[in-house]
Amino acid sequence: MNLLKLLWLVVAVTFVVPAVAQTSVSGKATMTGDSASMNMQILRDKVRADKKLVVAENMQLTDSEASGFWPMYEAYQIDLGKINERMKKLILAYADAYNSGPVTNEVAKKLLEDWLGTQEADVQLMRSYVPKFEKVLPDVKVARYIQIETKIRAIVRYELDSQIPLVE
To answer: Would the pTM of this model clear 0.85, i.e. be above it?
Structure first.
């Protein structure tokens, strides 16, 4: 992966994510649902554009590969967006629970189950798209795309997770 592009993406996400979470390490989350939703949408739009640029620059696709890859990439991103929407709702539900005082065991269990469900859906989605990508790309480029996708998402998740306080 082009290290300069990846670094630029990390810097961009670093400045946008704190606006999304607005949670201090020592304090409670202070963001309302509406402003969090708006800021998360800004983050998603920014990451989506930057991500596509990073993917394009690192995939080294031929014209014939590109004609098959990009429509599939867009479909994958739409499906991934549904999982990300679930995660957004989960984060907002956690913020509401966290801001309401100590989180009960029942709420913590529900949040954990919902989080595990998003992780499972994420893996299932990736597994379902690998064979589709293999129809239009050599295996090496499929593996490269999955690596790029995974690295970008790991950076975004790390930045977002670092802003979410531990359950109390």
So the answer is: no
